[in-house]
Write a structure and sequence with these properties.
The protein is mostly helical. It is built from four helices and no strands.
Length: 89
Amino acid sequence: MFGGRRSCNALQDSALNNMTIKEIREKETPQLHHELVEQRKHLFALRSQAVTEKLEDPSQLRKTRKAIARLLTTIHQREMEQKKSAAKS
């Protein structure tokens, strides 16, 4: 029926949305930047689906925004730590 069409990235995206902050912190910074780009693409796709009224799960918008916020927070914390350690040197 109508709900059968789902992208293969949906499983990966939901995996990141369920990822804890501890798991995010274990990743390398370049990986985080890549995940951030992917999540932003996914959010764009979700918003497009919402406009065309073909969004299967509206809660995915909120979950994706929160995943982006977690990624940005971790990236920002690492940048601050680098600046702090550079200032000490």
